[in-house]
UniProtKB/TrEMBL annotation:
Keywords: Membrane, Transmembrane, Transmembrane helix. Coiled coil: none annotated. The chain crosses the membrane at residues 29-53. PANTHER family: BLL7424 PROTEIN (PTHR43737), DUF1501 DOMAIN-CONTAINING PROTEIN (PTHR43737:SF1). This is DUF1501 domain-containing protein. Pfam families: DUF1501 (PF07394). InterPro entries: Alkaline_phosphatase_core_sf, DUF1501, TAT_signal.
Length: 438
């Protein structure tokens, strides 16, 4: 085979191995937010009950979401629901925030300063205590099933409001692989970046641009004349669409969004010179460039041992990045159209174990939200005195997912048919939390 048929390989799979299928998908979900519901302040469960905007109008608002994912399950008692001086409070101390009456755990000092922009939900509740199952549910809105693979929420939105004529991917995961597109197909898979401080792998043509384009043309001719004429026309069409979008991204001037060198050293220091901190800075740059959903992953939150020390170290990375991201978005005039969500798959047991750690505990945990129409400076719900149960205003995972859809202007109840014709809604039930918006 000639050199001209040796197509430049693009993409990576979850293990960092280059693959043609894994690079760039058309992942546009140019969603937009709606204001809070009027009247009694109750947000209906179905989008048809809301003031619906046309898809083109939604895209013009350029709503976006940045998910800060604390992989492993962050302890609520060492983050945003501390209980110092109680039986299960441990050694964690509470600090005051910029909002009188709201205290959070020591070590989250920068986050405390921007609490006026943040809404805390302290009454999240669920049943899944397994990492894989709970992570799947918090990303897709569905419990895992043996018969179907549900899509990442961002992929569902892309399918609903996607704008195909966009050079960059609309769904990006920084720091590792996330949930996939499921039954929506390969064209909506998230684009994974392992290291925020260097350009994505395999996005620079290894030959001159003209030669690169000739190779793509040769690939197209080979597929159409061979596989395409022997029963593979549909597969060729899908593959061609992926490569067309890939080539557009590789050759686009918008790729400069992935280069952090254009940011001031002072701002990069404020985010923190860590993988997570620089990932958050990259997330802001991508949203600014038009990317709609970015997930930034922080690992190590499965604190079965030495929970206080381990969370303290993790907070040292996440706290400045979280706070600076909110400030940075606000200074760029982007916070109102960017929903920022801090969460993990579940919480930790109130009772400290024999290894000075906390175990898996989905019954009560917390989530923090900012921007995107969220009314900051408030706490929604509460755990009881010893942290063993929800005291008031329980919020389920479907409720949270419906709230994210509401904030982004997405039809949470829209049904999409699977390849076998089974209709599946974006979110499995739930009602948006009215108090979050207003």
């Amino acid at each position: 085979m000639t050199d001209e048929s040796s197509i430049v390989r693009v993409g990576m799979n979850g293990q960092g191995v280059v693959s043609r299928r894994g690079f760039i998908r058309t992942m546009s979900w140019g969603a937009a937010g709606l204001g809070a519901a009027a009247g009694a302040g109750v947000i209906p469960a179905t989008f048809t009950d809301l003031m619906v905007l046309k898809a083109d109008e939604l895209r013009k608002r350029q709503m976006a979401c940045i998910l800060l994912w604390m992989a492993g399950g962050p302890s609520q008692l060492e983050t945003f629901d501390p209980k110092p001086g109680t039986e299960h409070g441990g050694t964690t101390k509470a600090i005051e925030t910029s909002v009188p009456g709201i205290s959070i755990a020591e070590g989250w000092n920068q986050t405390a300063k921007v609490m006026k922009e943040i809404a805390l939900v302290r009454s999240m509740t669920n049943r899944e205590a397994n990492h894989q199952r709970a992570s799947y549910q918090l990303h897709t809105g569905y419990a895992p099933s043996a018969t179907i693979k549900h899509p990442h929420l961002g992929c569902s939105v892309a399918a609903q409001l996607g704008e195909s004529k966009f050079d960059l991917p609309h769904i990006v995961s920084i720091g590792g692989a996330t949930a996939g597109a499921g039954f929506l197909g390969a064209s909506l898979e998230p684009f994974v970046i392992q290291n925020a401080e260097r350009p994505p792998d395999n996005t620079q043509p290894r030959v001159a641009v003209d030669r690169f384009k000739r190779r793509l043309g040769l690939l197209n001719n080979l597929e159409v004349a061979g596989f395409g004429t022997n029963g593979g026309a549909d597969r060729v069409k899908e593959h061609r669409a992926v490569y067309t979008q890939t080539a557009r991204m590789v050759l686009s001037p918008e790729m400069k969004a992935f280069d952090l060198e254009g940011e001031s050293p002072a701002l990069r220091d404020a985010y923190g010179r860590t993988a997570f901190g620089q990932g958050c800075l990259l997330a802001r740059r991508l949203v600014q460039a038009g990317v709609t959903f970015v997930e930034v992953r922080s690992n190590g939150w499965d604190t079965h041992q030495e929970v206080n020390d381990r969370v303290g170290k993790l907070a040292g990375q996440v706290d400045p990045a979280f706070a600076t991201l909110i400030r940075d978005l606000k200074e760029h005039g982007m916070l109102g159209r960017t929903l920022v969500v801090w969460m993990g798959e579940f919480g930790r047991t109130p009772k400290i174990n024999a290894n000075a750690g906390r175990d898996h505990f989905p019954r009560v945990f917390n989530v923090a939200l900012a921007g995107g129409g969220v009314r900051g400076g408030q706490v929604i719900g509460a755990s009881n005195a010893d942290g063993t149960d929800v005291k008031d205003r329980p919020v389920s995972v479907p409720d949270l997912m419906a709230s994210l859809c509401h904030g982004l202007g997405v039809n949470a109840q829209k049904e999409v048919d699977t390849p076998i014709g089974r209709p599946i809604k974006v979110v499995d039930g739930g009602k948006a939390v009215a108090e979050l918006f207003g």
